[in-house]
Design a protein that fits this description.
The structure holds 2 protein chains of 2 kinds. By secondary structure, chain A is an alpha/beta fold. Chain A has one domain (4-102): Response regulator (Rossmann fold), CATH 3.40.50.2300. Chain A has helices at residues 13-24, 37-46, 60-73, 90-102; strands spanning 4-9, 29-34, 51-54, 78-81. The longest helix of chain A has 14 residues, at 60-73. Chain B is mainly β. Chain B has one domain (3-279): Jelly Rolls. Helix content of chain B is 4%, strand content 45%. Chain B contains 2 helices and 22 strands. The longest helix of chain B is centred in the N-terminal third of the chain and has 7 residues, at 3-9. Chain B is globular, with a radius of gyration of 18 Å. The chains are: A alpha/beta, B mainly beta. At the A-B interface, helix 1 and helix 4 of A face helix 2 and strand 5 of B.
């Protein structure tokens, strides 16, 4: 599996910790979580992420602003919404995002 | 990786954060299994998709034997990920006393339908309930909840369907509902069990979706009228055999139909059918 560095943004700390843990359980994958927009922007400026997951509780206005900031710094970064809260769909979403990126 | 090996690494790592936590395995890309929501040659028209029971993703973790109509957890088939807003249809068999430890959800409409046995539910909203045969439970996970689900009985399996529908509105306040339905009201009838109207029959869902159950006697036929133009209907045969819009279906087969106004349903044997009408976009 190719290395993948993922930023997760969400408002629910326990869910975000779960998602980070699940991603990091995969060989070659790493993740950072942000509970606030400021934290997300700071992390994105410091590190090179391949994928951003917008999790539960993130308002649409925040989502749009964050997308603008992220794409300005890295137009190639893939930004997707995460549904379901960590378990069943997480790996599917990431696989789909990777597949689309590699097309 | 062979499919059977892939499946062994299965969903256990993701769905079970409590009792069942074991392998947060290092998954590899899976084999492709089955078909997606696009037309396939086995179907008789261009606006249907057929998922035979045996083509579903399968994982047996000992305590949990599960079948995934659509990609779920480590079962990933990029051509078979959803039918419109219907994202998950899992057919779970859980051993006595076992179950899914406390785990999170957000932004998903989650419907549980016990087919056999009793399921004990606890969640972070303070709900503690047993879901039995003829009950239907729904959770709008919204901004986030934690819950657990266990087989209430120690000496017998529970078989239940867990169905996930993408929400119409994201980030709503989490909510829970459960209704007991009369089985006699679905004998040779389609009984509405899920609806988007709080004043209509069935549990309320945060989506333009309607679910119906029918226990149809052999030879009985009926029509289902699509409620909302543009919606599709995914039919799942829980038991028995039925023909829907000309497509013969057997136990646990699924058929998705779209761009139609009606479904023509014929029971080829005594049959139990679940219809899930959902937006396609």
């Amino acid at each position: 599996m190719n290395p993948l560095h993922i930023l997760i943004i969400g408002r629910h700390q326990q869910i975000m910790e779960t998602v980070v843990r699940l991603i990091e359980s995969q060989r070659g994958w790493s993740a950072k979580g942000a509970l606030t927009d400021d934290e997300a922007v700071a992390l994105f400026q410091q590190e090179n992420f391949d994928l951003v997951l917008i999790g539960g509780g993130v308002e649409e206005t925040s989502e749009e602003k964050l997308k603008e900031v992220f794409l300005k710094k890295n137009p190639a970064v893939k930004i997707i919404r995460h549904y379901g809260g960590g378990s069943g769909l997480l790996f599917n979403e990431i696989h789909e995002a990777i597949a689309e990126t590699s097309k | 990786m062979k499919r059977s090996d892939f499946i062994k690494t299965g969903i256990l790592s993701t769905v079970s954060l409590g009792l069942a936590a074991s392998a947060e395995s290092k998954a590899e890309a899976p084999d492709l299994v089955g078909f997606n929501h696009l037309p396939i040659k086995e179907t008789k028209t261009m606006n249907t998709v057929l998922h035979k029971a045996a083509t579903r993703g399968h994982a047996n973790h000992g305590w949990l034997d599960t079948n995934h109509t659509f990609s779920f957890a480590h079962y990933y088939d990029p051509t078979r990920t959803h039918f419109g807003k219907l994202r998950v249809l899992n057919d779970d068999f859980v051993d006595g006393g076992m179950g899914f430890g406390t785990h999170p959800h957000d932004n998903m409409e989650i419907i549980s339908i016990p087919l056999e046995g009793d399921l004990e539910h606890k969640d972070s909203m303070g709900n503690v309930a047993v879901i039995r045969q003829n009950d239907v439970q729904i959770m709008s996970a919204g901004t986030g909840i934690y819950h657990s689900e266990y087989n209430k009985n120690k000496d017998s399996k529970v078989n239940f369907l867990q169905i996930w529908v993408f929400p119409k509105e994201r980030n709503i306040t989490p909510r829970y509902d459960q209704i007991t339905f009369k089985p006699e009201d679905r004998v040779n009838k389609l009984q509405q069990i899920v609806s988007p109207s709080k004043t209509d029959e069935g549990v309320w869902i945060n989506q333009d979706a309607w679910f119906h159950l029918g226990n149809l006697k052999k030879g009985f036929s009926t029509l289902y009228d699509v409620k909302l133009k543009g919606n599709g209907v995914y039919a799942f045969v829980i038991n028995g055999d039925a023909t829907i819009n000309g497509q013969s279906l057997n136990k646990r087969d699924g058929l998705g139909v779209w761009d139609v106004e009606k479904l023509d349903i014929v029971a080829d044997s005594d049959a139990e059918v679940l219809l899930m009408e959902v937006p396609m976009n």
